Amino acid sequence: MKMSIGERLREERERIGLSQTALAQIGGVGKTTQIKYEKGASSPDSSYLSAVSDEGVDVFYVLKGQRSGTATAQPLGVALSEPSAELSPIKM
């Protein structure tokens, strides 16, 4: 079964580790509006989509159901750590 825009938006929100309230704030809407987007009762506008895209939401996936390849695969605020000088190489 094909997922709706709202279902994909919820999936993206969960993927980047944000609450409905947090994503709503980023998108410049209220939590109730965010809930309506995710339930499919309302559709997000371009300013909302632009704002959430800047925070890592794959908007192409939300709208079309296909990954764009540009979205981050990790939750926001979690950086990959640099190799540590304290680690020694594995000897085989």
How many strands appear in the DSSP assignment? Answer: 0
CATH class of the domain at 5-64: Mainly Alpha
Could you tell me the CATH topology label of the domain at 5-64. 434 Repressor (Amino-terminal Domain)
Poorly predicted runs are none
Number of helices: 5
User: Based on CA inertia axes, which overall geometry fits?
Assistant: globular
Element-level helix/strand string: HHHHH
Q: Give me the Rg, rounded.
A: 17 Å
Largest sheet: none
Structural class call reads mainly alpha
Mean pLDDT: 85
Strand content: under 5%
- What's the architecture of the domain at 5-64, going by CATH? Orthogonal Bundle
The CATH superfamily label of the domain at 5-64 reads: lambda repressor-like DNA-binding domains
Share of helical residues = 40-55%
Distance between the termini: 48 Å
Overview of this protein structure:
There is one protein chain. This protein is mainly alpha-helical. The protein has a domain at 5-64: lambda repressor-like DNA-binding domains (434 Repressor (Amino-terminal Domain), Orthogonal Bundle), CATH 1.10.260. Helix content is 46%, strand content 0%. The chain has five helices and no strands. It has helices at 5-15, 20-27, 31-39, 46-53, 59-64. 26% of the residues are buried. The mean pLDDT is 85.
